[in-house]
Specification:
Layout lengths: L1 E6 L4 H10 L6 E5 L9 H6 L5 E4 L12 E5 L10 E6 L7 H9 L5 E6 L4 H9 L5 E5 L1 H10 L7 E6 L7 H8 L9 E7 L8 H10 L4 E7 L3 H9 L5 E4 L4 H10 L3 E2 L1 H6 L4 E5 L2 E5 L1 H10 L6 E5 L3 H12 L3 E6 L7 E2 L10 E4 L14 E4 L7 H16 L4
Parallel strand pairs: 1-2, 1-8, 2-3, 3-4, 4-5, 5-6, 6-7, 9-10, 9-11, 12-14, 15-16, 15-18, 16-17, 18-19
Antiparallel strand pairs: 11-13, 13-14
Helix pairs in contact: 4-5, 6-7, 7-13, 11-12, 11-13
C-alpha cells in the first residue's frame, strides 16, 4: 500500500504550510483544490515537498497542470492516463462492482480508485473481495469503516488519511494501524463491535500488537445498527474475534450463552462480555474491562469509591472495585438499580470516582478527587490500553 495524506485547507497558503509541516512517514500527498476555488500555484505545491502530489478538484473540472497526478472523476475526459487517478464516488450506495471495475481499469490509468458506501457487513465483504492489483477500494461512511481499514491488508493500493479532511481517518490514527505498510494478507479478522464505533482507537492498539507477536491478523471497526449482523459474521468464521463496546456488551453475553461459549468469570460477574474469540476448542467470552480497571486500581489507595453510570462498563468497574475491598456507591443520570441521582455525586465523601458515562456528559466530580474515566474526552485512553493487554492475549488464542 501507499499512504496518501490529504490536505484540505481553506487557502492555498494554508495548504502549502500544511504540506511543509508533514513528517516524512507518508508516500504521497493529495491537495484538495476544491477547498479553495479549484486551482492554484502548482509549482509552489510541488516545491513544498519531494513526495508525489495528486491534485484533486472534487465536484469540478480536473485541474489543468502538467505537474504531479490529476484526479479525474470517471465519466470525464482523460488527457494523460499515465498521470491520472481515475476516481468513482457513490456517497449513498454500492453499485455492481465488477462491470464498473472492468470499465475503469480499461483506461490504463496510473491509479484507479473506487469509493462507495456499503451499508451492511456483507456489502463490506463484497467490496474487499473485489480488490485486485493496481486498484484502490474505499468504503465510505460509518458502516464503510470495516472495509476502509481492512482494504490495504487485502491489496488495495492507496489509503487516504486526512489532515482536517472530511470523512477521512486522521494520519495520527492511521500510522499505528499500518506500520511500515508491508502488510501480509491476514488469515484472521478482528473488529470492535459497537453502534457507533467509528471513534474507536482500538485498531491503533491491536494491529501493532499483532505485528509485535508476528501473527497474520488485522483489526478493524464494525459499526453497525444491530449486534446480530456482526454476530452472524463471527459465528460463520468471517470474523475471528470481537472487542465489544456500547451498546452491545449485554447482547454479546446473551449470544455467548446461546452458542454454548466458554464464559469466563469476569463476564458472568459483570453480566456483560466485551471480548469474543473463536479458538480451536471453541468460543471464549470474557470481560477485559474488569482487568483494565484492576490494572488502573493498583496504584490507587481508596476505601470508598463512587461509580458514575449504570451500564456494562459500570458493572465491570464495580466487580474490580469490590474485589479490591472497596466500598462502592453508584450514581447515574437516570437513578435506578440502587443508583443515586448524578447531581448528588458533587457531594460524595470518599476517595475515588470511576466515571463510566459516555463522551460529552458533564460529570460533577468533587474537587481534588482521584478519577478513572472510560470516555476518551475525559482520559479514557488509559482504560482502553489497560483492558487491551489481556484482550489481545485472548485474541492470540485464535492462532494457536
Amino acid at each position: 500500500m501507499q499512504l496518501v495524506v490529504t490536505i484540505y485547507e481553506p487557502t492555498q497558503d494554508a495548504a502549502i504550510d500544511a504540506i511543509r509541516s508533514l513528517r516524512d512517514d507518508h508516500d504521497m500527498i493529495e491537495v484538495r483544490l476544491d477547498a479553495f476555488g479549484g486551482t492554484g500555484d502548482f509549482p509552489a505545491f510541488c516545491g513544498a515537498t519531494a513526495k508525489p502530489i495528486i491534485f484533486t478538484n472534487r465536484g469540478g473540472d480536473p485541474p489543468e497542470t502538467d505537474l504531479g497526478f490529476v484526479d479525474v472523476e470517471y465519466g470525464r475526459k482523460i488527457k494523460d492516463p499515465r498521470r491520472t487517478v481515475l476516481s468513482f464516488h457513490d456517497f449513498e450506495d454500492m453499485p455492481d462492482l465488477n462491470p464498473l471495475i472492468d470499465a475503469m481499469t480499461a483506461f490504463g490509468c496510473a491509479h484507479t480508485k473506487i469509493a462507495v458506501t456499503p451499508l451492511t457487513l456483507r456489502e463490506n465483504d463484497a467490496l474487499l473481495a473485489a480488490i485486485k492489483p493496481g486498484l484502490t477500494i474505499i468504503g465510505m461512511g460509518e458502516h464503510g469503516l470495516y472495509s476502509r481499514i481492512l482494504a490495504p491488508f487485502f491489496g488495495s493500493e492507496l489509503f487516504f488519511a486526512g489532515i482536517a479532511a472530511p470523512g477521512q481517518l486522521s494520519l495520527e490514527r492511521v500510522l499505528p494501524i499500518y506500520g511500515d505498510r508491508k502488510l501480509p494478507k491476514p488469515e484472521k479478522i478482528f473488529a470492535i463491535a459497537g453502534n457507533p464505533a467509528g471513534h474507536s482507537l482500538s485498531p491503533a492498539i491491536h494491529n501493532p500488537l499483532f505485528r509485535k507477536n508476528r501473527v497474520p491478523g488485522a483489526y478493524t471497526i464494525a459499526s453497525f445498527e444491530t449486534f446480530d449482523e456482526i454476530a452472524e459474521a463471527f459465528q460463520r468464521g468471517r470474523i475471528a474475534g470481537l472487542s465489544v463496546t456500547a451498546p452491545f456488551k449485554a447482547d454479546a453475553l446473551a449470544f455467548a450463552k446461546r452458542i454454548g461459549a466458554d464464559i469466563r468469570p469476569n463476564a458472568y460477574e459483570a453480566e456483560a462480555a466485551n471480548t469474543l474469540v473463536r479458538t480451536k476448542i471453541g468460543v471464549i467470552a470474557d470481560n477485559t474491562d474488569v482487568d483494565g480497571f484492576e490494572i488502573l486500581l493498583r496504584g490507587v489507595h481508596a476505601r470508598r469509591a463512587a461509580v458514575a453510570g449504570a451500564g456494562a462498563t459500570a458493572r465491570a468497574a464495580i466487580v474490580a472495585l469490590r474485589r479490591g475491598g472497596k466500598e462502592v456507591r453508584l450514581y447515574n443520570r437516570n437513578p435506578k438499580f440502587g443508583a443515586e441521582p448524578l447531581d448528588n455525586l458533587s457531594s460524595f465523601k470518599g476517595d475515588l470516582v470511576v466515571d463510566t458515562l459516555p463522551p460529552g456528559v458533564h460529570v460533577p466530580i468533587p474537587s481534588g478527587m482521584t478519577t478513572i474515566a472510560a470516555a476518551y474526552d475525559r482520559g479514557g485512553l488509559q482504560l482502553l490500553q489497560a483492558q487491551a493487554i489481556r484482550q489481545n492475549a485472548l485474541f492470540l488464542e485464535a492462532f494457536r
